[in-house]
Amino acid sequence: MRPTPSIVRVIDLETTGSAPPAHQVVEIGWQDVALQPDGRWELEGEGGHVLVNPNRAIPPLTMAVHHIRDEDVADARQWHDVARPILDPYPRRVALAAHRAAFEEQFCTAALTRGAKWICTWKCALRLWPDSPGFSNQMLRYWRKPAGLVHERGLPAHRAFPDAYVTAHHLRDQLNEASVAQLIEWSDAPGLLPRVRFGAERGKDWREITNESLAGFLTDRDPDVRFTAETELARRRGGGEIGRASAQELLL
């Protein structure tokens, strides 16, 4: 009997805002990526989406992004009735994934996921594809042109299933370049930024800026900026890698 393949389930949420419990989920979408007998990862199944009643009005600001209205979710089920079966497809799931997973993790708590590990495809893209002109889900879609992505199935953007479907193609390619354990390790750390994002050094490779400029980033309020600056400082002292390294040079 063929064993049941392991999956990483990609999750995407549409919500009333970004800060639970004041804000709540209005839609969850998912798409599985499964380990194949030949050792490669591929998308599996049709995925899906479910509307969720947030028990509060959807602000016009967020309605303008995802176009889900109060009347669309008035008769939908509650989050606690919807979440567990989607987030915990036992026994196949080895991890959950999302693009900028910290957002989804706020709503998909450990109690709902049974303590699942998360892969952040945004953080992994910073490591694996540092030459991308940007790292949003849609920028990576059009810059990378992932094999097999059906354009219409990935639309409209900013709805839960299409976004999960697009993210799943990034995840598939990341899993075929690095192990699950490596992607989780990168995801557990702050983002390692390939280029300076602001200021006089904006757009430069971190290895190109002066020690004086680098020192200014070590106390930045953004943890991704601080982490990147600290790692570049360690590289200059002989203790680490940073910047536009090849996949072979990354911290494997």
Automatic annotation (TrEMBL):
Pfam families this protein is in?
RNase_T
One GO molecular-function annotation for this sequence?
nucleic acid binding
Q: Where is the Exonuclease domain?
A: 7-180
Coiled-coil positions: none
Q: What does UniProt give as GO cellular component?
A: cytosol
- What is a biological process (GO) this protein takes part in? DNA replication proofreading
Q: Which SUPFAM superfamilies match?
A: Ribonuclease H-like
InterPro entries in the cross-refs: Ribonucl_H, RNaseH-like_sf, RNaseH_sf
Which protein are we looking at?
A: Exodeoxyribonuclease X
